[in-house]
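=== RUN LOG ===
request id: a7f3
mode: sequence -> structure
chains: 1
length: 81
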Amino acid sequence: GMNDYWQPTTNPVCWRTWECTIYNRWGGVVFTSTDPEDKWLGEAMLGDHYVADGVYFWQIRASAWNLTKVVDRTGTVTLFR
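=== RESULT ===
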């Protein structure tokens, strides 16, 4: 019931465009979304299995309604079941 998913903390109505991608340590994409309200449950890209415990790299590229430049943020999320 706690920490069952990963999701960026943001106000979804602020974004004109949104792309969130999560990569494994080899650079393979395990999750991608264009909806700021989507949650990553620790599933692989096809949703047919869960990924292994470990550190995953995330990248968000978005443009806000009131900005002309693209916001580019990165970070890590540690998955531990």
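=== NOTES ===
The mean pLDDT is 92.
The CA atoms of residues 46 and 61 lie 22 Å apart.
=== END ===
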